[in-house]
Amino acid sequence: MTIFILLIIKSSMTLQQLKYIVALDLKRHYTKAAELCFVTQPTLTIQVKKLEDEIGTVIFDRNTTPLTPTPIGEILIAKAKSTLREANEFQELAYDNTSSISGQYTLGIIPTIAPNLLPLFLESFLKSNPKIKLVIKEMQTDFIIDALHNGTLDIGIVSTPLEDKTIREINLYQEPFLVYCNDKNTFGTSEIVKQDDLTPDDLLILEEGHCFRNQVLNICQDNDKNKNKAFLFESGSIQTIKNLVKAGLGYTLVPQLSVVEDLENNHIKYFENPKPTREISIVVNKNFAKEKLIENLLFEIKKNIPKQVKEIDNYIKVRWK
Predict the structure, then answer these.
(1) Smallest Cα–Cα separation from 317: which of 280, 276, 257, 282?
(2) Of 34, 53, 105, 294, which residue is the least packed, with the fewest Cβ within 10 Å?
(3) Which of 5-14, 38-47, 181-190 has the lowest mean pLDDT?
């Protein structure tokens, strides 16, 4: 480890280049690795090649599909991971201050949470923490997990549990699922819906890759009699699906924070108790040392979320996988 760190000091090698080779080892594909590092594919490709030229060693075998590390490359990548972990720990310990926090941090948040949660707390959080700059990225859960692993992301907000021993989860709230339909008489005249009443017929869902999609399928496929029926539509946006529902093209399930009840009351039905919910949490790498940042973020979110998610106590968590 000492030799490797000295090599970095004596050359123009950067920690960013080490992040690139770790990401490339994880994804084994230039474009996917670049997405993970929030850079363009040419930038990542050039920097990896520059690093190889400088140390005079080929780290990746380009003649294989997918890319594979060379034998010496595997050793260097392992050292790079250790170096990045130690560099992160050094930075966090060196600049940690129990009374105030400052600096730039990257926050990853899944698309089905971001548009509903960020407007509730972000302004208040930034006013209360004026020395912090947040770089916020909408990312699917799998990408957030990968980025927390390789150090390209500081904090995530996702649906949990992740069941990953290297990631710490700090619970924020339980968010109920609602049935969103065009006709108030869909599934009967009652405003309360039983999970067994749902069928996949005319169900509109998010496209693959969204954990919310998996949760909706888990709710709607509890009945064996419905498991072989086809789903008619998939989209990348809950708002698009809601607009299609309003046009009479089916029904869907939505998270409660995505609904303005005063304006959309004619389109929503509630589940009977125990209500199916998704658990929303802050997630960080186990080595993340900025406890004050986590505490402040937790405080601002819990202070600003509406009472319908603060007060729910009779629920069953729907898993995202």
Answers:
(1) 276
(2) 53
(3) 5-14
Range from 50-59, 122-131, 231-240, 264-273 carrying the lowest mean pLDDT: 231-240
Residue at token pair 């009472």:
307
For 138, other C-beta atoms within 10 Å of its C-beta total 15
Rg (CA), the chain: 23
174-277: CATH class: alpha beta
**Rounded Cα distance, 268 and 262, in Å:** 11
Q: Where are any strands of DSSP class E within the chain?
A: 60-61, 68-69, 103-109, 132-138, 155-160, 167-181, 192-193, 204-206, 233-235, 251-255, 268-271, 275-285, 315-317
Question: Six-digit token pair at 48?
Answer: 């990896």
Token pair, residue 90, equals 């050094």
pLDDT at 2 over 60: no
Fold match between domain 2-95 and domain 174-277: no
From 255, 258, 213, select the one nearest 234 (Cα to Cα).
213
Question: 2-6, 73-77, 291-295: lowest mean pLDDT where?
Answer: 2-6
Residue 197's pLDDT is what? Answer: 85
Residue type, 237: S
Q: Which CATH architecture has domain 2-95?
A: Orthogonal Bundle (1.10)
Superfamily of domain 103-172+279-314 in CATH is Periplasmic binding protein-like II (3.40.190.10)
H-helix or E-strand spanning residue 122:
helix 114-128
Record the pTM: 0.71
Name the nearest CA neighbour of 34 among 150, 114, 156: 150
